[in-house]
Amino acid sequence: xxxxxxxxxxxxxxxxxxxQDFDYVYSYIYARTAGNSQLTEDIxxxxxxxxxxxINTFRQRSSSRTWFCAIxxxxxxxxxxxxxxxxxxxxxxxxxxxxxAGDVDIEKVIIDSxxxxxxxxxxxxxxxxxxxxxxxxxxxxxxxxxxxxxxxKTPKAVDSILQRAKISFKKEYYKSEGRxxx
Length: 182
Fold this sequence. Notes:
There is one protein chain. α1 (7-32) runs antiparallel to α2 (37-53) and α7 packs across α9 (155-176). By secondary structure, the chain is mainly alpha-helical. It has two domains: 7-76, Orthogonal Bundle (Rna Polymerase Sigma Factor, Chain: A), CATH 1.10.1740; 87-176, Arc Repressor Mutant, subunit A. Helix content is 71%, strand content 0%. The protein is elongated, with a radius of gyration of 19 Å. It starts with 6 loop residues before the first helix and ends in a 6-residue tail after the last helix.
């Protein structure tokens, strides 16, 4: 059931939803941009602007928080796609990262709550393409094929990027601890 309301009621309704869900949506996006405040603010703004334009189509089959996060996820995917297309040439320069393969289990490191701040710093230090592939894979729990569809790359290319991303992450993690990789 589509909502039909006059402009005043629409504005009041949207303002209430915005005030109720802003912090949650901001946190959702912030975590998925590896703590990049500027990018988070941009995507939050795009999210709520898109929601405002489509508020009449919100059917209330889910909570407003779920609806906003679905829009945010689409905005994040658009950003990932742009970064991955724009940065295609940057990946070729990182082939030497293969030499840094080590024995750090990325999933276990990320789960460690004491390491979260360090993880954000490490994620900020790596190539944005690597950052977004790691976020899509490990935070969004996406499959390689889904990442490929979103990024416009082949699954083989995404798998290769993911492997390089893991290596880059390991290298930066060791560097942040002042250790040399084994």
